[in-house]
Specification:
By secondary structure, this protein is of the alpha+beta class. The protein is 41% helix and 12% strand. InterPro entries: Aldolase-II_Adducin_sf, Aldolase_II/adducin_N, Aldolase_II/adducin_N_sf.
């Protein structure tokens, strides 16, 4: 299909630590811009190419304060590497190290505590395929039962198990998580998972009868998304425009 070739040709190379730092900073600034942050809490991480280490936010900065230089480089044993002196969020380390260490096919993990995401995580039904945003995640989202604040390293294997081969994970009574083979893909999934959650909670709050698409339509629509037949290419078409948006509304995000 021409559309597949077109999307693949637009894939963005993020091959060096500095490129990872810049693009992960963009994730934090975009989460803030779109109202998906939670003061200094929640986190996004990205693997450093060729190293057994990843980058994550320093604990204590709001997302709009993060720059490439402030990101913390940490290995899978929890050791801060290089010249970084800021601590990482302990729960963030548990969640992100558990996924990145055992999934070499994934380079980015994003976790949020948005109002709609937390509300959805409290619903026994989870994400309902009642709108086009949600349908993209049909049969591609897992669920992880609440175990308290993620300070226990023992929770890691269960997070890994519940994510399985999905692109998203609902942390019950907690929030949302998405993963990607690269940074644009992980952000793409989080942006649209958040939109699906917001729409679902608005619909449920209306109290009106819900129109549910037929299952066969849900299944066929889910297969139409680029992210379904070429997951690593998800988000690459829109990523340059998002970086331009940051240049316009958030000067200084690129750091020194």
């Amino acid at each position: 299909m021409n559309v597949v070739k077109d999307v693949v040709s637009r894939k963005i190379a993020i091959d060096t630590e500095q490129e990872v730092r810049l693009n992960l900073t963009a994730v934090y600034r975009l989460l803030s811009h779109f109202g998906m942050d939670d003061l200094i809490f929640t986190h996004a991480s990205a693997r450093i190419p060729g190293e057994d280490a990843f980058l994550i936010n320093p604990f204590g900065l709001m997302f709009r304060e993060i720059t490439p230089e402030t990101l913390v480089k940490i290995d899978y044993e929890g050791r801060i590497l290089g010249r970084d002196t800021n601590p990482a969020n302990a729960a963030g380390f548990v969640i992100h190290s558990a996924i990145l260490k055992d999934r070499p096919d994934l380079d980015c993990v994003i976790h949020t505590h948005t109002r709609a995401g937390v509300a959805l995580s409290c619903l026994a039904d989870g994400l309902m395929p009642i709108n086009q945003f949600a349908i993209e995640f049909y049969d591609r989202i897992g669920y992880h039962d609440y175990e308290g604040i993620a300070f226990n390293l023992d929770e890691g294997p269960r997070l890994h198990r519940d994510l399985a081969q999905n692109v998203a994970l609902v942390l019950r009574n907690h929030g949302l998580l998405t993963v990607g083979a690269n940074i644009p893909a992980a952000f793409y999934f989080m942006y649209y998972l958040e939109q699906a959650a917001r729409v679902q909670m608005d619909v449920l709050a209306s109290g009106r009868k819900i129109v549910e698409p037929p299952l066969e339509v849900v299944k066929s629509t889910a297969r139409q998304y680029t992210s379904a037949f070429n997951p690593p290419a998800a988000g690459h078409r829109m990523w340059p425009s998002l970086l331009r948006l940051l240049d316009q509304v958030d000067p200084g995000w690129r750091g020194a």
